[in-house]
Design goal:
The complex is a heterodimer. By secondary structure, chain A is an all-alpha fold. Chain A has nine helices and no strands. Chain A is globular, with a radius of gyration of 18 Å. By secondary structure, chain B is of the alpha+beta class. Helix content of chain B is 27%, strand content 24%. Chain B has six helices and eleven strands. The structure holds zinc ion (ZN).
Chain lengths: 211, 211
């Protein structure tokens, strides 16, 4: 999807991350640079970097609008939601942890929460933030694994048959009921399961380390 | 330390991540994720797939002023919604549903109590308090019922459920749960249909007691 690699030296915290990385990662050369979006998100989180936020907006806002409109919002309401989601990205940036989630996964959650809050006029229950106030030691190798998984997942999506892909898309757009998910998603989920499994083991590990 | 042995099925976590669970069930799943690192990992993996769907989906053209309007609001002050943390045996989603208060228990007879957190067309969710050794009145379900143990434990025909364990029951299950000896059993229970308590109360009285 043409994720261009940013000049890391223009993003101070990402630069920091890489310095740390070169120490730890002597065993796993060569370290690929982290993606533009992750670098931007870290710059927003750590430095309140507006230019980085503008780049995130350029990347995600059109996707969010497409996403939100496909799950049933009209154009005007969709833009309202897009603006709301992007402002939440700015305000809640301190909750972003690149060792646990891709930027896209984090924004997906914010977008779904926002849509549901609007739709149902009630706050969607969210799991307890077990790591509130934790200072995230950026472990570059973990960040890179998360990024790699995102690429695997996208590849796995592309490899699904058109019918299966439609089912997965509908499910995550919120167009299937729980019942439909449990009866129709088995096959496509099985297909991407090995990828998810990989990510699961890693996530469990990261989560348990953080406790 | 008792380990969690009864987890959420994958389809429930996917449905929760996609935001399609009715509020009562969403509250229980959010609470289980708050107590269970394994299901949290699976939930976050579903968010990652959602992120991949967002990332690879179609874009929509934005109004020309949306970016400027969003950037201009970055510094606007916002009153954050109140945030609730864990309180004793209650994970934060339950504390939020209680609005930070302690539960207001209503007697169900024979020492059993309930505190309704919400009820409506989407179903109901409540806290149940069952004295040690006592049976939860025999009942069967019209739809799905989720029960999460917050304190103590109960056993039924399907096994033993301790703190953090989640039981998923449907209308085919006549399970006669009974609180184990020791501490009183406190559960978070959600259903999408009114429960029919056979032993405890004549059906006519049910609306009165809202069970
Ligand atoms: Zn679990």
């Amino acid at each position: 999807m043409g994720m261009s690699m940013i000049d890391l030296y223009s993003v101070p915290s990402a630069h920091l991350l890489c310095c740390r990385a070169t120490k730890d990662m002597s065993k796993v050369p060569p370290a690929p640079p982290i993606s533009t979006q992750t670098a931007c998100m870290i710059a927003v989180r750590d430095n309140r970097d507006r230019a980085a936020f503008a780049l995130l907006f350029d990347h995600f806002a059109p996707r969010l609008k497409g996403f939100v409109m496909r799950s049933g919002s009209g154009a005007a309401q969709a833009e309202e939601i897009v603006q709301d989601v992007m402002l939440t990205v700015w305000r809640k940036a301190d909750q972003f942890d690149p060792a646990r989630a891709q930027v896209s996964a984090w924004i997906y959650q914010i977008a779904r929460n926002r849509q549901i809050d609007l739709l149902r006029k009630e706050r969607r229950p969210v799991p307890e933030d077990l790591f509130k106030g934790a200072v995230f030691e950026p472990d570059a190798s973990e960040v890179l694994v998360v990024e790699q998984e995102a690429e695997y997942l996208k590849a796995a999506l592309r490899q699904l048959s058109p019918e299966q892909r439609t089912i997965v898309e509908k499910a995550y757009l919120g167009e299937l009921t729980h019942q439909e998910i449990s009866t129709e998603m088995g096959l496509p989920l099985g297909t991407i399961k090995s990828r998810i499994r990989l990510g699961l083991d890693r996530l469990r590990h990261v989560l348990k380390d953080m406790r | 330390m008792n380990a969690i042995t009864h987890h959420s099925p994958d389809s429930l976590l996917a449905a929760f991540a996609a935001g399609v669970l009715e509020h009562p069930f969403a509250l229980v799943v959010a609470s289980h994720i708050s107590m269970c690192l394994d299901c949290r990992a699976t939930f976050e993996a579903h968010l990652a797939i959602g992120g991949a769907v967002l990332e690879s989906g179609a874009t929509a053209v934005l109004s020309s002023d949306l970016k400027g309007a969003t950037l201009s609001q970055l510094d606007h002050p916002v009153t954050p919604r109140p945030e609730y943390g864990r309180k004793g045996i209650f994970p934060s989603p339950v504390v939020e549903a209680l609005k930070g208060q302690t539960p207001r228990w209503k007697s169900l007879g024979m020492g059993a109590r309930q505190s309704i957190l919400s009820q409506g067309s989407e179903g109901s969710v409540r806290l149940l308090y069952i004295p040690p050794g006592q049976a939860v009145p025999d009942h069967s379900h019209n739809g799905m019922e989720l029960t999460l143990v917050l304190q103590g434990s109960f056993s039924d025909s399907t096994g033993r459920f301790g703190v953090g364990d989640l039981e998923v029951a449907d209308h085919s299950l006549e399970h006669s749960p009974k609180a184990d000896d020791g501490a009183a059993c406190i559960c978070l229970a959600a259903t999408d249909a009114p429960l029919r308590f056979a032993a405890l109360l004549p059906r006519l009285l049910q609306p009165l007691f809202r069970i």
